[in-house]
Amino acid sequence: MNLRLRLAIEWLAIGLLATGVVVAALFWRGTSSFDNLIYDHLGDVGRPDADRQILLVTIDDPSLAALGKWPWDRKLHAQLIEKLQAGQPRSIAFDILLSEAGDADSDTKLAAAMAAGPAPVFMPLHFNTPGSDGRAYDTVMPARLFATTANGIGHVNILFDDDGIVRRSALCFRPETLSENWPHLMELVYRGRTGGPSTAALRDTECSTELLIPFAHAGEYAEISYSDLLSGKTPDQMIKGKDIIIGATAAGMGDNFPTPNGEGGLLSGVEIMANMLGAIRHDNFIKPLPMAWVASLSLLPLWLLLIGFLRWRPRVVLLMSLATLGMILILSTGLLWRHVWFPPGAALLGLLLVYPLWGWRRLQAMSDFMSAELRALEQEGEVSPIPVPQSQATDLVGRQSEALAGAIDHMRDLRRFVADTLADLPDPMFVTDPDGKVTLTNDLFNQRLGRDITDMPRSTALDLMVADEQRALVDRYLEQAHDAGNPPEFVRFVSRQDRTFVMRRSEVRGDTGVLHGHIHYLTDISDLARAEAEREEILQLLSHDMRAPQSTIIALLNGEIDADTKKRIEQNARRTMQLAQDFVEMARMGETEFAGEDVLLADLVREAADSLWPLAHERGIKFAFYDRSDGGFVLAEPDSLQRAICNLVDNAIKFSPDQGTISISIVRSESEPAIIVTIADQGRGIAENILPQLFTRFASDGEQRGRAKGTGLGLTFVQAVIERHKGSIIADNNPDGGARFTFELPEAPEA
Amino acid sequence: MRVVIADDEADVVVFLKTIVEELGHVAVSYSDGNMLTQALVRETFDLLILDWNMPGKDGIAILQWMQSSLPERPAVIMMTNRSAKRDISDALNAGADDYITKPEDRAVVAARINAMLRRNAGSGAFDAEAVYGKYHLNRIEQTVSVNGKTITMTSKEFELADLFFRNADRTLSRNYIMETIWRTTAALATRTLDMHISRVRAKLDLQPENGFRIFTVFGYGYRLETIAPSK
Fold it and tell me: Global pTM?
């Protein structure tokens, strides 16, 4: 199974598992303790102030001390009611159960006080759990007298959460057996005042919905001690217009409950009632978010994070997980501000579950993958042996990582090996991708071209390489190579640098046969090409230039042999020899390094002329020396340089008129340390049209007649020698007629 | 005098034999290197004209053998088709006394053979005056005059000219020249000799027109050649 599919499946599994856990936690309220903890700690968020319109009349310890042990005679209650009614409160509610009839006189007095008005008086009922005769509970009404007198009877059920803390209440209670709702005592107080049900009660179609009570700080509600009120210490305006709730706060009366108001203390039942009434009046109950919403809000961030896992890098995943946790807490707090309670426990649980799970599965998957890949790499054998690293890591993944690192190092070495091999290839090469862009070149190639063509399109690269007239040829080769059949194996072209190359192209394909590009190998065959050209010239020399004088000799021998014939035979023989000599010298020059020695140039020139004196003398030709070289030495190979000068002098003699003078001047250059030699004759001069090619080999061939005829290698040889001596030569015509050859050689410094 | 010619080309042997006999000497010839060495051990010769490429033993090998094994050595002229500077200097340094590159004019060959035989005969006359062609040397005054015109020369230049004239047609090594004229080879810039020769050449106008030419044997030395009167 490939890594991607495996990860996808595991991802889904983790997501579903986390979803299941979240749903279960919600359903079985698995996280209620945590949620309660959070809720309690968030108690200050939107904590309301005590309602100043509510006054508690408390049966506290001082009252017990003043009025005696509980229960009291109900006459006391009657007196209290009377006192209260005198103060004109808005309503009076008893948070004291008066379920059984007491002393009849007292009861009557109390009932009378209740009925006297003007404020309505409300009484609580309560339920005994478990009820008698197998019922869930028994409904315990106030004593009949009170039940009929009271303006309303409501329940005062205290709802305990799982942890025994009182956080919520319902505005009505629907007993199982009755279709009638018992409204809460405080709801009755509210109705008694406005005549209609509270907004909170109206909003909830099901009035028994448990609402969370926003508790004011404990003790904030105004209260008066029962005994103080009875003894008349309370001014009437304290009571006027207030909703009065009478209840017990004395420690011994057992009417105290733990509430989440932050101080961990107990709150008396009567103060809980006051808080409820405040919430009803201000409509600021905290409504628990409906289960569907809680589930959505719990699962949505979970799945968003899961999707993120697929895209983000591990570090980002961690950060995002932490961020999501924070966001949920913030969301919870924010909603609480708006009087809506979203328990974050399940959502947090899901998130906390999913991150390590994912990390674990991913690590496992990576581990398996690495093992498989390493095994595959070893089995392929191409890169074996993979060096096994010394296992120092403690766990499996660590060891695998090391093995992988080892394999990667090995591959890197291989890659460097390949790169070095390419760079050191003895021939220039470049690689193109399938789009024809140059992706790789080796050093030799860059060196040859003098620049780096990497990233250039192939055609631009070829523009730089191939001489214009050869371009079509190269392009045709590169096009043809695509065709099946029998494409040519290579193409030969001349570069812009005037070198001759053979280019061979081969395809690079991956394991799957996809074309990755082409490798172009170039081979510099310039030397070979030049050798070829030289061979052509040798053949030319042997087949024509050497043969011609020999043929002449044979022809002459067929005729009468007289003095003139002998001389012509000698001349032809000498010409052959000179050709051979020039040719040998030329070949030697091509093969050996220049090895000059100190030579007095003027004397070398003189001796060259001396050696040809017999030829000149025969025709009455004289040499006129003009030596102003002042003993200038040059670095020379005397053999070849003397031959070259001889060729020039010989040429001058050949084209001089009889009795002519050949001027040979040897002077120092004015501009640089060099010596200039000029050899001028009085012949017809050189035809203008062959001047440019005078020094090319076999310039005498073809239609070029006259001056250059018969010189053969001569002038080419001369030029080659002069250039070998780092000098230069030019040919022109004297203004007053005759050819003039001038060459310049650098002077050798004194040793 | 007895001249031995060692060459495997019959035409060349005939050409050389004719020259030697015209000069009034006796000529013997061998065309095989081994036979030549046997003859050299058995007999006495005044001059050996030696070809480079020969069957049996080549010219250089024979020169080396002579240096090491022959107590009484004849003068040797190496005469071959090899014309490269290196070949010439190799042969001269291996013990040849002169070197002639084929083909060469009959007159030149004759002059060189003659010069070699003359040296061997020990021509050591030092007259106060001597005449070489158009050059009159006065060894006391150390002057040279041409057509009655006296040419001023330094002492060293005169000695150099005199050395050349007396050894005309013989190849003189640079060391020999320097030892003879300067009595030393040390501490003498190599260019000094070239410069002196150049000045002698220029002052005396030694050129074929005047019957002489100075020929540089690169890598070895110099030779003053007499030019035969035009044929």
Answer: 0.50
